[in-house]
Design brief:
Layout: E1 3-19, E2 25-42, E3 47-51, H1 56-67, H2 75-84, H3 95-113, H4 117-121, E4 127-136, H5 147-160, E5 165-169, H6 181-195, E6 201-204, H7 211-223, E7 228-230, H8 238-247, E8 252-254, H9 261-271, E9 276-279, H10 281-284, H11 287-299, E10 304-306, H12 311-317, E11 327-332, E12 357-359, H13 372-377
Parallel strand pairs: 4-5, 4-11, 5-6, 6-7, 7-8, 8-9, 9-10
Antiparallel strand pairs: 1-2, 2-3, 4-12
Bound molecules: magnesium ion.
Protein backbone atom coordinates (compact mmCIF):
# COMPACT_ATOMS: atom_id res chain seq x y z
CA UNK A 1 0.00 0.00 0.00
CA UNK A 2 1.37 3.41 -1.04
CA UNK A 3 0.15 6.97 -0.67
CA UNK A 4 -1.16 8.05 -4.10
CA UNK A 5 -2.48 11.57 -3.47
CA UNK A 6 -2.65 14.43 -0.97
CA UNK A 7 -5.36 17.00 -1.59
CA UNK A 8 -6.71 20.10 0.11
CA UNK A 9 -10.26 21.43 -0.21
CA UNK A 10 -11.64 24.64 1.26
CA UNK A 11 -15.33 24.99 2.02
CA UNK A 12 -17.58 27.76 3.29
CA UNK A 13 -19.64 27.71 6.48
CA UNK A 14 -21.50 30.21 8.66
CA UNK A 15 -19.74 31.27 11.85
CA UNK A 16 -20.77 33.37 14.84
CA UNK A 17 -17.24 33.69 16.22
CA UNK A 18 -15.38 36.92 15.43
CA UNK A 19 -11.69 37.56 16.18
CA UNK A 20 -10.31 40.66 17.89
CA UNK A 21 -7.03 42.18 16.72
CA UNK A 22 -5.07 39.91 19.09
CA UNK A 23 -6.72 36.82 17.62
CA UNK A 24 -9.09 35.96 20.48
CA UNK A 25 -12.51 34.61 19.49
CA UNK A 26 -15.71 36.24 20.78
CA UNK A 27 -19.42 35.88 19.91
CA UNK A 28 -20.49 38.21 17.09
CA UNK A 29 -22.61 38.64 13.97
CA UNK A 30 -23.00 35.56 11.78
CA UNK A 31 -20.68 35.68 8.76
CA UNK A 32 -19.03 33.49 6.09
CA UNK A 33 -15.93 31.61 7.20
CA UNK A 34 -13.77 28.94 5.57
CA UNK A 35 -12.58 25.54 6.73
CA UNK A 36 -9.91 23.32 5.14
CA UNK A 37 -10.09 19.55 4.65
CA UNK A 38 -6.82 17.69 4.03
CA UNK A 39 -7.22 14.22 2.49
CA UNK A 40 -4.53 11.59 2.07
CA UNK A 41 -5.48 8.77 -0.33
CA UNK A 42 -3.70 5.45 -0.97
CA UNK A 43 -3.38 3.54 -4.25
CA UNK A 44 -6.15 1.16 -3.12
CA UNK A 45 -8.56 3.97 -2.20
CA UNK A 46 -8.15 4.19 1.59
CA UNK A 47 -8.46 7.73 2.98
CA UNK A 48 -7.45 9.75 6.00
CA UNK A 49 -8.69 13.26 6.82
CA UNK A 50 -7.72 16.29 8.85
CA UNK A 51 -9.90 19.38 9.35
CA UNK A 52 -8.03 22.61 9.95
CA UNK A 53 -5.90 25.41 8.67
CA UNK A 54 -3.14 24.51 6.24
CA UNK A 55 -2.09 26.43 3.12
CA UNK A 56 -2.35 25.04 -0.38
CA UNK A 57 1.24 26.01 -1.28
CA UNK A 58 2.89 23.95 1.44
CA UNK A 59 0.66 20.97 0.65
CA UNK A 60 1.47 21.09 -3.07
CA UNK A 61 5.19 21.89 -2.85
CA UNK A 62 6.36 20.16 0.35
CA UNK A 63 3.85 17.69 1.75
CA UNK A 64 2.62 15.98 -1.41
CA UNK A 65 6.07 15.33 -2.93
CA UNK A 66 7.26 13.86 0.38
CA UNK A 67 4.22 11.63 0.97
CA UNK A 68 3.36 10.24 -2.46
CA UNK A 69 4.89 6.77 -2.82
CA UNK A 70 5.36 6.33 0.94
CA UNK A 71 3.78 3.51 2.97
CA UNK A 72 1.25 5.28 5.26
CA UNK A 73 2.08 2.88 8.11
CA UNK A 74 5.58 4.43 8.20
CA UNK A 75 4.11 7.67 9.46
CA UNK A 76 6.70 8.11 12.19
CA UNK A 77 9.39 8.16 9.49
CA UNK A 78 7.31 10.69 7.55
CA UNK A 79 6.89 12.86 10.66
CA UNK A 80 10.63 12.78 11.29
CA UNK A 81 11.41 13.73 7.68
CA UNK A 82 8.95 16.64 7.81
CA UNK A 83 10.37 17.90 11.11
CA UNK A 84 13.91 17.82 9.66
CA UNK A 85 12.69 19.95 6.75
CA UNK A 86 11.62 22.63 9.26
CA UNK A 87 15.20 23.79 9.93
CA UNK A 88 15.62 27.27 8.40
CA UNK A 89 12.11 26.83 6.99
CA UNK A 90 9.80 27.20 9.99
CA UNK A 91 7.72 30.02 8.53
CA UNK A 92 6.71 27.94 5.49
CA UNK A 93 6.50 24.64 7.36
CA UNK A 94 5.13 25.32 10.85
CA UNK A 95 4.21 22.63 13.38
CA UNK A 96 0.54 22.92 12.42
CA UNK A 97 1.36 21.42 9.02
CA UNK A 98 3.02 18.47 10.77
CA UNK A 99 -0.12 18.21 12.91
CA UNK A 100 -2.37 18.10 9.83
CA UNK A 101 -0.31 15.42 8.08
CA UNK A 102 0.19 13.33 11.21
CA UNK A 103 -3.51 13.31 12.13
CA UNK A 104 -4.56 12.50 8.56
CA UNK A 105 -2.12 9.56 8.54
CA UNK A 106 -3.30 8.23 11.91
CA UNK A 107 -6.87 8.51 10.59
CA UNK A 108 -5.85 6.67 7.43
CA UNK A 109 -4.12 3.71 9.15
CA UNK A 110 -7.01 3.45 11.62
CA UNK A 111 -9.41 3.26 8.69
CA UNK A 112 -7.27 0.59 7.01
CA UNK A 113 -7.15 -1.71 10.04
CA UNK A 114 -10.68 -0.84 11.21
CA UNK A 115 -9.63 0.37 14.67
CA UNK A 116 -9.91 3.71 16.51
CA UNK A 117 -6.62 5.56 17.01
CA UNK A 118 -6.60 5.30 20.82
CA UNK A 119 -6.65 1.50 20.49
CA UNK A 120 -3.73 1.61 18.06
CA UNK A 121 -1.80 3.71 20.59
CA UNK A 122 -2.58 1.26 23.43
CA UNK A 123 -5.83 2.36 25.01
CA UNK A 124 -6.41 3.01 28.70
CA UNK A 125 -10.04 4.22 28.59
CA UNK A 126 -12.93 5.27 26.33
CA UNK A 127 -14.19 8.32 28.28
CA UNK A 128 -12.50 11.34 29.83
CA UNK A 129 -13.94 13.91 32.27
CA UNK A 130 -14.12 17.35 30.68
CA UNK A 131 -13.63 20.82 32.02
CA UNK A 132 -15.54 23.81 30.73
CA UNK A 133 -12.99 26.13 29.11
CA UNK A 134 -14.31 29.64 28.48
CA UNK A 135 -13.56 32.03 25.68
CA UNK A 136 -11.35 34.98 26.63
CA UNK A 137 -13.36 37.47 28.70
CA UNK A 138 -15.08 40.37 26.96
CA UNK A 139 -17.24 43.47 27.51
CA UNK A 140 -20.53 42.00 26.24
CA UNK A 141 -23.30 42.59 28.80
CA UNK A 142 -24.34 39.21 30.22
CA UNK A 143 -21.42 37.53 28.42
CA UNK A 144 -18.08 37.20 30.20
CA UNK A 145 -17.90 40.88 31.09
CA UNK A 146 -17.41 40.89 34.86
CA UNK A 147 -16.65 38.58 37.81
CA UNK A 148 -20.38 38.08 38.46
CA UNK A 149 -20.94 36.94 34.85
CA UNK A 150 -18.16 34.38 35.21
CA UNK A 151 -19.75 33.17 38.46
CA UNK A 152 -23.19 32.70 36.94
CA UNK A 153 -21.83 31.01 33.79
CA UNK A 154 -19.65 28.69 35.88
CA UNK A 155 -22.71 27.78 37.94
CA UNK A 156 -24.64 26.88 34.75
CA UNK A 157 -21.72 24.84 33.36
CA UNK A 158 -21.25 22.82 36.54
CA UNK A 159 -24.74 22.60 38.06
CA UNK A 160 -26.84 22.47 34.85
CA UNK A 161 -24.62 21.05 32.08
CA UNK A 162 -22.62 18.69 34.31
CA UNK A 163 -19.02 19.83 33.79
CA UNK A 164 -16.92 18.56 36.72
CA UNK A 165 -14.39 21.43 36.47
CA UNK A 166 -14.13 24.99 35.09
CA UNK A 167 -11.34 27.11 33.58
CA UNK A 168 -11.39 30.86 33.14
CA UNK A 169 -9.69 32.73 30.32
CA UNK A 170 -9.73 36.26 31.70
CA UNK A 171 -9.45 39.75 30.12
CA UNK A 172 -6.71 40.41 27.62
CA UNK A 173 -5.73 43.26 25.31
CA UNK A 174 -7.13 44.92 23.26
CA UNK A 175 -9.94 45.21 25.85
CA UNK A 176 -9.69 48.48 27.82
CA UNK A 177 -8.29 47.95 31.31
CA UNK A 178 -6.79 44.57 30.47
CA UNK A 179 -4.74 42.90 31.69
CA UNK A 180 -5.38 43.33 35.40
CA UNK A 181 -4.21 40.97 38.14
CA UNK A 182 -6.79 42.47 40.49
CA UNK A 183 -9.68 41.86 38.07
CA UNK A 184 -8.46 38.33 37.24
CA UNK A 185 -8.39 37.45 40.93
CA UNK A 186 -11.83 39.00 41.46
CA UNK A 187 -13.27 36.74 38.72
CA UNK A 188 -11.54 33.66 40.17
CA UNK A 189 -12.82 34.52 43.67
CA UNK A 190 -16.38 35.01 42.37
CA UNK A 191 -16.35 31.61 40.66
CA UNK A 192 -14.92 29.90 43.76
CA UNK A 193 -17.56 31.60 45.92
CA UNK A 194 -20.37 30.49 43.58
CA UNK A 195 -19.26 26.86 43.23
CA UNK A 196 -18.03 26.17 46.76
CA UNK A 197 -14.75 24.58 47.83
CA UNK A 198 -14.86 21.25 45.98
CA UNK A 199 -15.08 22.03 42.25
CA UNK A 200 -11.63 22.00 40.55
CA UNK A 201 -10.86 25.41 39.00
CA UNK A 202 -8.10 26.60 36.70
CA UNK A 203 -6.92 29.95 35.33
CA UNK A 204 -5.39 30.90 31.98
CA UNK A 205 -4.67 34.66 32.21
CA UNK A 206 -2.82 37.19 30.05
CA UNK A 207 0.31 35.50 28.71
CA UNK A 208 2.75 38.36 29.10
CA UNK A 209 2.51 39.28 32.78
CA UNK A 210 5.75 40.10 34.58
CA UNK A 211 7.26 37.77 37.19
CA UNK A 212 5.84 39.88 40.03
CA UNK A 213 2.37 40.00 38.47
CA UNK A 214 2.42 36.21 37.93
CA UNK A 215 3.50 35.64 41.54
CA UNK A 216 0.74 37.92 42.84
CA UNK A 217 -1.77 35.90 40.81
CA UNK A 218 -0.34 32.61 42.04
CA UNK A 219 -0.48 33.70 45.69
CA UNK A 220 -4.11 34.73 45.22
CA UNK A 221 -5.00 31.40 43.61
CA UNK A 222 -3.26 29.45 46.40
CA UNK A 223 -5.86 30.87 48.77
CA UNK A 224 -8.67 30.00 46.37
CA UNK A 225 -7.38 26.40 46.05
CA UNK A 226 -7.06 26.41 42.27
CA UNK A 227 -5.92 23.20 40.57
CA UNK A 228 -3.46 24.95 38.24
CA UNK A 229 -2.50 28.15 36.42
CA UNK A 230 -1.13 28.08 32.89
CA UNK A 231 1.03 30.46 30.82
CA UNK A 232 0.92 33.71 32.85
CA UNK A 233 4.28 34.80 31.32
CA UNK A 234 6.09 34.54 27.98
CA UNK A 235 7.15 30.89 27.78
CA UNK A 236 10.38 31.76 25.97
CA UNK A 237 11.72 32.72 29.40
CA UNK A 238 11.95 29.30 31.05
CA UNK A 239 13.92 30.91 33.91
CA UNK A 240 10.86 33.00 34.80
CA UNK A 241 8.85 29.80 35.25
CA UNK A 242 11.57 28.22 37.43
CA UNK A 243 11.50 31.42 39.52
CA UNK A 244 7.69 31.23 39.82
CA UNK A 245 7.55 27.50 40.66
CA UNK A 246 10.11 27.98 43.44
CA UNK A 247 7.92 30.55 45.19
CA UNK A 248 4.38 29.19 44.98
CA UNK A 249 2.59 26.05 46.05
CA UNK A 250 0.08 26.58 43.21
CA UNK A 251 0.71 23.97 40.48
CA UNK A 252 2.05 25.63 37.31
CA UNK A 253 1.08 23.86 34.08
CA UNK A 254 3.25 24.29 30.98
CA UNK A 255 4.67 24.80 28.47
CA UNK A 256 1.73 25.27 26.14
CA UNK A 257 2.67 27.47 23.19
CA UNK A 258 6.49 27.29 23.45
CA UNK A 259 8.02 25.86 20.28
CA UNK A 260 10.21 22.78 20.54
CA UNK A 261 7.87 19.78 20.61
CA UNK A 262 8.97 17.03 23.06
CA UNK A 263 12.48 18.51 23.32
CA UNK A 264 11.21 21.71 24.99
CA UNK A 265 9.02 19.69 27.39
CA UNK A 266 12.00 17.58 28.47
CA UNK A 267 13.98 20.77 29.19
CA UNK A 268 11.14 22.24 31.26
CA UNK A 269 10.94 19.11 33.41
CA UNK A 270 14.71 19.06 33.90
CA UNK A 271 14.77 22.75 34.84
CA UNK A 272 11.85 22.48 37.29
CA UNK A 273 9.89 25.06 35.28
CA UNK A 274 6.48 23.35 35.65
CA UNK A 275 4.60 21.07 38.04
CA UNK A 276 2.26 19.65 35.39
CA UNK A 277 3.33 19.17 31.78
CA UNK A 278 1.29 20.60 28.91
CA UNK A 279 0.94 20.06 25.18
CA UNK A 280 -1.66 19.45 22.53
CA UNK A 281 -1.53 18.02 19.02
CA UNK A 282 -1.68 21.55 17.59
CA UNK A 283 1.25 22.77 19.72
CA UNK A 284 3.74 20.00 19.10
CA UNK A 285 3.05 18.66 15.59
CA UNK A 286 0.53 15.85 16.03
CA UNK A 287 -0.29 12.65 17.86
CA UNK A 288 3.14 11.12 17.17
CA UNK A 289 5.06 13.67 19.32
CA UNK A 290 2.24 14.17 21.85
CA UNK A 291 2.18 10.51 22.88
CA UNK A 292 5.95 10.74 23.44
CA UNK A 293 5.34 13.73 25.72
CA UNK A 294 2.69 11.75 27.61
CA UNK A 295 5.24 8.95 28.15
CA UNK A 296 7.85 11.52 29.19
CA UNK A 297 5.50 12.94 31.83
CA UNK A 298 4.66 9.44 33.08
CA UNK A 299 8.37 8.64 33.38
CA UNK A 300 8.84 11.64 35.67
CA UNK A 301 5.71 10.90 37.71
CA UNK A 302 3.96 13.99 36.34
CA UNK A 303 0.55 14.68 34.93
CA UNK A 304 0.33 15.92 31.36
CA UNK A 305 -2.71 18.12 30.86
CA UNK A 306 -3.66 18.15 27.19
CA UNK A 307 -4.11 21.58 25.59
CA UNK A 308 -7.25 22.06 23.54
CA UNK A 309 -10.04 19.83 22.33
CA UNK A 310 -10.60 17.90 19.13
CA UNK A 311 -10.30 14.30 18.04
CA UNK A 312 -6.50 14.05 18.07
CA UNK A 313 -6.21 15.22 21.66
CA UNK A 314 -9.12 13.04 22.74
CA UNK A 315 -7.53 9.86 21.35
CA UNK A 316 -4.21 10.66 23.09
CA UNK A 317 -6.06 11.26 26.38
CA UNK A 318 -7.58 7.79 26.03
CA UNK A 319 -4.13 6.21 25.60
CA UNK A 320 -2.23 7.75 28.53
CA UNK A 321 -1.10 5.42 31.31
CA UNK A 322 -0.88 8.32 33.78
CA UNK A 323 -4.20 9.79 32.73
CA UNK A 324 -4.48 13.45 31.92
CA UNK A 325 -7.04 14.69 34.42
CA UNK A 326 -9.35 16.42 31.93
CA UNK A 327 -10.36 16.99 28.32
CA UNK A 328 -10.47 20.73 27.51
CA UNK A 329 -13.95 21.30 26.09
CA UNK A 330 -14.60 24.65 24.42
CA UNK A 331 -14.09 27.38 23.98
CA UNK A 332 -17.40 28.11 25.70
CA UNK A 333 -19.48 31.25 26.05
CA UNK A 334 -23.00 31.95 27.35
CA UNK A 335 -24.03 33.23 23.87
CA UNK A 336 -22.80 30.16 21.91
CA UNK A 337 -24.27 26.65 21.89
CA UNK A 338 -21.11 24.55 21.89
CA UNK A 339 -23.11 21.30 21.90
CA UNK A 340 -24.65 22.08 18.47
CA UNK A 341 -23.10 19.88 15.75
CA UNK A 342 -21.02 21.89 13.23
CA UNK A 343 -22.52 21.90 9.71
CA UNK A 344 -19.63 19.84 8.25
CA UNK A 345 -20.17 16.96 10.70
CA UNK A 346 -23.03 14.51 11.17
CA UNK A 347 -22.27 14.17 14.89
CA UNK A 348 -19.99 16.05 17.30
CA UNK A 349 -16.42 14.84 17.83
CA UNK A 350 -16.53 15.24 21.62
CA UNK A 351 -20.03 14.31 22.87
CA UNK A 352 -20.35 14.84 26.63
CA UNK A 353 -22.85 13.04 28.84
CA UNK A 354 -24.76 14.53 31.78
CA UNK A 355 -21.99 13.48 34.19
CA UNK A 356 -19.41 15.50 32.25
CA UNK A 357 -17.63 12.58 30.56
CA UNK A 358 -16.57 12.95 26.93
CA UNK A 359 -16.78 9.75 24.86
CA UNK A 360 -14.09 8.97 22.30
CA UNK A 361 -15.23 7.52 18.98
CA UNK A 362 -14.94 3.74 18.81
CA UNK A 363 -15.22 3.84 15.00
CA UNK A 364 -12.13 3.41 12.82
CA UNK A 365 -9.44 6.09 12.62
CA UNK A 366 -10.05 9.41 14.33
CA UNK A 367 -13.79 8.79 14.00
CA UNK A 368 -14.80 12.12 12.46
CA UNK A 369 -18.30 11.72 11.06
CA UNK A 370 -17.89 14.12 8.10
CA UNK A 371 -20.97 15.46 6.31
CA UNK A 372 -19.49 15.11 2.82
CA UNK A 373 -22.70 16.36 1.17
CA UNK A 374 -22.42 19.66 3.05
CA UNK A 375 -18.69 19.92 2.30
CA UNK A 376 -19.24 19.25 -1.44
CA UNK A 377 -22.08 21.76 -1.65
CA UNK A 378 -19.93 24.48 -0.07
CA UNK A 379 -16.58 23.93 -1.81
CA UNK A 380 -14.84 27.18 -2.70
MG1 LIG B 1 -3.89 27.94 27.65
Amino acid sequence: MKIADVSLQHFRYRSRTVRDEHGHGHPGEEHDATQALLTVTTDDGARGHYLGGVERGVVEHVVKPMLVGEDPFYHQRIWRALSERQRLNLAALPDRVLTAVDLALWDLVGNVVGQPVHRLLGATRDTVPAYASTMVADDLPGGLDCPESFASYATWCVRERGYPAFKLHTWQPPLPGAPSVKRDLAACAAVREALGPDVPLMLDPYHYYSRLDALELARGLEGLHFLWMEEPMDEHSMSSYVWLCEQTSLPICGPETAEGKMYARAEWIKAGACDMLRGGVGDVGGITPLIKIAHLAESFGMHMEVHGGGVGNLHVLCAMATPGLYYERGLLHPFIDYDATPAWLNSPVDPMDAEGNVHVSTGPGLGMDLNMDYIRENII
